[in-house]
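Recall that a protein's primary structure is simply its ordered list of amino acids. Everything else, from secondary elements to tertiary packing, is in principle encoded there. The following example makes that idea concrete.
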Amino acid sequence: MRIALFTETFLPKVDGIVTRLRHTVEHLQRNGDRVLIFSPDGGLTEYKGAKIYGVSGFPLPMYPELKLALPRPSIGWALEEFKPDIIHVVNPAILGLAGLYYGKTMQIPLIASYHTHLPQYLQHYGLAMLEGLLWEFLKSAHNQAHLNLCTSTAMMQELSTHGIERVALWQRGVDTEMFTPEWASAETRSYLSQGNPEGPLLLYVGRLGAEKEIDRIKPILEAIPNARLALVGDGPHRQALEKHFAGTPTHFVGYLTGIKLASAFASADAFIFPSRTETLGLVLLEAMAAGCPVVAARSGGIPDIVTDGVNGYLFEPEEESSALVATQRLLGDRLLRESLRQNARREAERWNWAAATRQLQNYYQNVVYPQSVSSAA
């Protein structure tokens, strides 16, 4: 099958969406499909055999890591040459509108997928009054697709509540060969803790954006004796966070990838994730695969991954002390922590990118060949 993939973000950017798309494209290509990626221009022309059609754009004012790439006629010409069987639009916003437009005008079957909970982001950027308008836009865009994929059951319910139709679940995946407890390292632990490996090591990995609510980790850090915090990642809120955590034992590590990232997960005592805007929280699965116990907000798609008291802890995001109590309980019981580690690893092993991609391919087949699928049934 020939798949045209429209996405508002791709390499060299690093985030959960790009991680999912990287593995998806790799497995699609490996399985014999052909993928053409339309994304903001990041200087790459190919990934794992898939051609990248980079569209020039400009940085988003409040989020310079993200580029806004505007649709243009050359996209239509590229589609005519590629002759896709299906168009898959990831987070239709700006560039994705071209995918929706050409899908309709060229009568190519359309799938859309929802990965970023933009309506909830607005309140963190002083734009909460636009939430209703944004939902109307999202409903209009997504309802043009033959199928809308979500990465958690919570997001399926959320989209359905706001009038988005034909919703289905795209299962999670994680690289359990890369992220494994075997990468635990005294050297990494010393680096993350800035030379103080003996104390409890708290870890956050992800985008440093206001919507991630990383500032809420500070009371936890300050309440746990000798604790250290490592923040892995970067983003537009970093400068504000550096001021917020000034005077605390916090290490702003920057981006880590590959084995270095896997080792960071495996070497920490607890992964703290306060975000309430996650459609899934792929980074949680990576932490769990590496055997790093998770303390995360009971919100969005996170409860699909974390079972409270079994493979991690969930805290009530509206209760100020809830995250601290959960973290203290985790750190205070070595046997419990080891049990959570083992259970977290077992949960992660249930999910892999090959299975997630096979499920996606089935969705593609159902949309492109609905009559043959229904008659076979």
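The two ends are 21 Å apart (CA to CA). The chain has two domains: 2-173+352-371, 181-349.
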